[in-house]
Amino acid sequence: MVTLVMQCVKEIDFFRNIREIREYEFGVFYFFDGLVISEIKKDVVFNWAMAQKAIDAAYEIIGKDKPIAYISNRINNYSVVPTDWIKFYTNRNQLEFYSVVAYNKGGLASLILERMFFRNSIRQFSDLDSAIKWSLTKISEMENKKEVLK
Fold first, then answer.
1. Burial class for 91, CB neighbours closer than 10 Å (0-12, 13-18, 19+)
2. Per CATH, the architecture of 9-128 is what?
């Protein structure tokens, strides 16, 4: 059996690229250029009101006109209200790339429910570095396409 090693954002080399950190009662959000990584606290039921705080912060820090990739780094067991994805779209929010780093079966179980409500694909990873590399590649590809279209 393969044992997955949990990685906290603060413990990886990529952390030196941090732009800002926002701590909330429900979790911590790390903001980089075009990238947001969350670490939600244990036993939280993550809902739309919480998501709205993170979305507002992302638009404030990164901007509304740039592609944003979101990584849910599931170092703790928590749940997501999957139907709240409908509120995400109703409020005309955009999330170009979404990935989940799950280290156990609990993290994977909530991902199955989320996939039912999230319109785009959700990429799953077992380590944070791979999720970051994939996200940055996707953002870069999207920005290059926009440049070509100008």
1. exposed
2. 2-Layer Sandwich (3.30)
